[in-house]
Design a protein that fits this description.
The complex is a heterodimer. Chain A is of the alpha+beta class. Chain A has two domains: about 240 residues, Periplasmic binding protein-like II (D-Maltodextrin-Binding Protein, domain 2, 3-Layer(aba) Sandwich); about 210 residues, Dipeptide-binding Protein, domain 3 (Roll). Chain A has a five-stranded mixed beta sheet. In chain A, strands 1-10-9-8 form a four-stranded mixed beta sheet, sandwiched between helices. In chain A, helix 1 crosses helix 2. The longest helix of chain A is centred in the N-terminal third of the chain and has 23 residues. Chain B has a single domain, classed as MetI-like (MetI-like fold, Orthogonal Bundle), CATH 1.10.3720. Chain B is built from ten helices and no strands. Chain B is elongated. The two termini of chain B are about 20 Å apart. The chains are: A alpha+beta, B mainly alpha. At the A-B interface, helix 8, helix 12 and strand 16 of A face loops of B.
Amino acid sequence: MFLNSAHVNGKSGISRLMFTTLMILILFTMSGIAAAQDGGVLRVGMNAPENLDPATGSNDPEILFNGTIYDYLIDVRPDNTLAPNLASGWEMSDDGLTYTFALVEGVQFHDGSDFTAADVVFTFERLKAVESAALGLLGDFEVAADGDYTVVFTLAGLNADFLYGIASRFAFILKEGTENPGVLGEGDDVFSNFIGTGPFVLAEYSAGERAFLTANENYWIEGQPMLGGIEFLFIDDSLTQIDALRSGAVDFIFKLDVSQVATLEGESDIVITEVVSNQHPLIRIRSDEGHLGEDARIRQAFRLTTNREELLLTVQEGRGLVGNNDPIGPTYGDFFAEIDNPAFDSAAACDLIQEATGEARLGPIDFYVDNALNFESLAVALQQQWSEGCIDVNILMRESGVYYANNEWMEVDLGITGWGHRPVPQIYLNIMVAGDAVWNEAHFADAEVDELIAQASVTADTMARAEIYAQISTILAERGPYVIPWFSSLIGAASSIVEGLEMHPFPGLTDFRSVSIND
Amino acid sequence: MEQNLTNVESFGASHSFTTRFGKFLKQLAERPLSLIGTFIVVLFLFIAVTGPLIAPHGYDEFMRDDEGALMRRTEPSLQHPFGTDKDGRDIFSRVIWGTREIILLPGIATTIAVILGTSIGLTVGYYGGWFDEIVSQLMDSLLSIPALVLALVMLGTFGQSEIGIIIVVVLLYTPIVARIIRSTTLNIRTLGYIEAAKLRGESTPYILFREILPGVLPALVVEAALRFSYAIFLIASLGFLGLGVPPPSPSWGRMVEEARGEYLQAPWALWAPVIAIALLVVGVNLMADGLRRIFRHEIDKVS
């Protein structure tokens, strides 16, 4: 026995290292167990959130984190419909310019203070002050309190999507007077900037590592949250997230790359959820003067020589819906106009290139690709398809941080950008397609399209609006700057002990209030 | 062993290069491990040169079955000895094509670093004094930057390209080579035959390259081989981190990165490039080790 252990110890430092690692892992897991109350603790593995300001933090981890602390006035359900939350009901005036919201009474913030109309006014004034992306759907408005539990919004013009603006993922209700929401304080007040009415209360936060939230004992919905707490473990590497789920270190991960799904499918204690969404890789051709796609024939050539069906089946492994030429995807039901895409025709593309440039081949063009999900495989497959259509490209993989941070994605001639799911198609039109849109990365400007977008934004009737969207889709299929290979299914995976979890097509909006752990 | 000892002072001009090279090969052959290492390196060099002739498919060619469907993640078979990857490309062909890059890039970069480092090392070692102080401090400060961090910053800022990678490796390895050559030069410059050359009135370049260089050559050869193996590893690492030559180039490091996420579904896609990298690095190291043994006495003599 003695000899044996001496032998093990003497063998190498590796076994000791493994032992230490194991102990650390066990301790790590124990700390989660110790903190568990009835209902258990849900451990979520996700990328580290960076901007915790509710009005501006925009990606899934940021929204998911804030969504545990704060509530919305109106929730967007996974099927894109609206559900009352802190606003128990609302009315629109006959002229469509005034919205009156009734608020739930008796709601308390984490610090015990009452939730009133003043907090709502503060929140929406702040969205304006920090120029939050929520304004894209809110438009021009004035907000005022009418007593403690009624809020009145007055609009500058008709806005058919105003309620979706109120339900914007940035419109978390803050406590009036919060100065630096999302910023860690000092001393005893370290979490004083994280006061919401939400189902969980922030208890521990270690930037880039983890956060722990306990259930809000005074939550305003009876019986919710069902969990005792939530632990976020910040893991930036997607493969490590998967390994963490497989090893039982976390219970839920989301936004898996399709190629990873098969790895998890054989595991009996892991449940994979797949949600159709409007998330898509956007291939856009810059079309202002002096750039690649200035001539509409060039843009059309790209569309003709992209085989969307094959890309969906191979690169995306069939997980999603075949794409088209604009961001209004099939998940929008009536708003989606089924336009027959021309069949893959590389010869026709070659002819267009010849016509437009006088040369037999176009390129090589630098093709900028956000290094996310399966975009590299997509780029490699596109390079081959386009090559058949007389277009040559050099693939340049860009780290997402670099690509988006220094605005490269807004400047390049040809690129792939990842666009997430939005509850209504109008958002994409307002921020991506319109000539003066903030993120008009294709620099596309078409008076007819702009006119239709403006018209759609004031058209409340569903069928009338669908008709306008169909016109937009038809124009973009003819002369637009976009090719969308597919609309992705979003994939999440959870341990089988997790119950009541319904992943949202925008995973950051996944609701944890009715989730429980069943050991 | 004694007859293998070569007199450093006789390096100057008396021995012809071919005799010395023949002797060197003979010595290498006496050590089985070094011979294996050299064999591996030569084999990879051969593959690098003849790659396009050996590879059954293009590195970016998508394999399709009889019905025209992409053959993604197919197991190794006679048709595809190393299987196919997630995009449906033949891994065997990609490994063979990738040999070019993994030999050529580190080869070019190491050669430039060795030439630059040797010139700098010889010059500062020979002149010494404040000139040596300044240049050496400068080199040391360059050495203090961790290799991967410098590479990440440079390639992240200026974008990925072959030229960028070569510049990074040259920046990283020139000071190391220079430092070794400098210290050897410091020892040689006090020797009698250098004094004699000075008294004969030979020019400085002549003294540096005809009198001193042959003396530092053994140390240089060993160092160059070692640098080459480190450069292979560095460039493979950069490929793994996504900062190597852009896709669809068959960079071994990138192949490891692409396959690592699917090691349960398609382990063969991971094994092929991993074994290739390991084999090449071990080969170069064994060869370098052999070189060091052969030149040990000569290196000891001047240092």
